[in-house]
Design brief:
- Helices cover 76% and strands 0% of the residues.
- The chain has helices at residues 2-14, 18-25, 27-44, 46-49, 81-117, 119-134, 137-148, 152-178, 182-189, 194-230, 242-250, 258-285, 287-292.
- The chain is built from 13 helices and no strands.
- It is mostly helical.
- The protein has one domain (78-292): Orthogonal Bundle (MetI-like fold), CATH 1.10.3720.10.
- It is found in: Cell membrane.
- InterPro entries: BP-dependent_transpt_permease, MetI-like, MetI-like_sf, OppC_N.
- Its main location: membrane.
- It holds the Pfam family BPD_transp_1.
């Protein structure tokens, strides 16, 4: 009896969530998870952590080097760089998350519809997607942001438009494969509507692929936001953003290096953490990788 229980427990562990088991084996992935968690917590608790008001100007401490009073120095208006960096994390992470969420919903819906319906509709939709993919992400985001204007909401829309096409391409391919499987055919024979088949039977089977792409493209969204802010099409000053801080500090890069270095490091660490997490999720979800592990 005890032997049977032990065997059952062992088999249940092996049949537990394969993604969690794969992440547990990949210790390097926990570096990305821990780093990203620290950045997110710093952004959430910025009002409690920030030593100064990020918008308060003090000309007496203009361009002060890193010291015990100002750990990361001050900018050309005497504002504390550390405080602006913490509050800027809120803007950058919010834009990255919301833009990717919108792109994931819109792009995945388009890809599933194109893959399920097929035929001429699929050819037209994928033709439009291919045209969008032919543009560099930054260039397409620059054009959309220039047309909509520089604001928090418009920046989210601009980045979401640039990233919807990859989600459509990723969602379409597995949809074509899944819709030919027996359980989908059984659903059709039972009279299930196409909307129910796509939402209940197809979407759960391709969701893992979409989530992996979302984690990777969120890093791209943060880079795009920083690039647009650097050229003046991001959230407008005095609201602190990492790209805006780099732009403001670029004029004094030779005399006040900290104005550019610390925001750049923040972007680097965030993108690195998201890429590590995305690669770990991809390896965990890929059945070929799991079988080798």
């Amino acid at each position: 009896m005890m032997t049977n229980v032990a065997v059952t427990n062992g088999s249940s562990e092996r049949q537990a969530n394969p993604v969690l088991l794969a992440l547990r084996r990949n210790r390097f992935s926990w570096i990305g998870i821990g780093l990203l968690l620290c950045i997110v917590l710093a952004a959430i608790f910025a009002p409690l952590i920030a030593p100064y008001d990020p918008l308060k100007q003090n000309i007496l401490f203009r361009l002060a080097a890193p010291s015990a009073d100002f750990w990361l120095g001050t900018d050309s208006y005497g504002r504390d760089v550390l405080s602006r960096l913490l509050y800027g994390a809120r803007i950058s992470l919010a834009i990255g998350f919301l833009s990717v969420l919108i792109a994931m919903i819109v792009g995945s819906t388009i890809g599933i519809l194109a893959g399920y319906i097929g035929g001429l509709f699929d050819q037209i939709v994928m033709g439009i997607v291919d045209v969008m993919l032919s543009f560099p992400t930054l260039l397409l985001g620059l054009m959309v942001a220039a047309m909509l204007g520089a604001s928090f909401e418009n920046l989210i829309i601009a980045i979401a438009i640039t990233e919807a096409a990859p989600f459509a391409r990723v969602a379409r391919a597995p949809t074509i494969a899944v819709k030919r499987r027996d359980f989908v055919e059984a659903g059709r024979s039972l009279g299930f509507t196409p909307l129910r088949i796509m939402g209940v039977h197809i979407l759960p089977n391709i969701l893992s692929d979409i989530v992996v792409v979302a984690s990777l493209w969120m890093a791209s969204a943060i880079r795009t936001e920083a690039s647009l802010a650097f050229i003046g099409l991001g959230v407008q000053p005095p609201t602190p953003t990492w790209g805006g801080m780099i732009r403001e500090g670029f004029e004094n890069i030779l005399s006040a290096w900290w104005l550019v270095v610390f925001p750049s490091l923040a972007i680097l660490l965030t993108v690195l953490a998201l890429n590590i997490l995305g690669d770990a999720l991809r390896d965990a979800i890929d059945p070929k990788t799991r079988s080798r592990g």
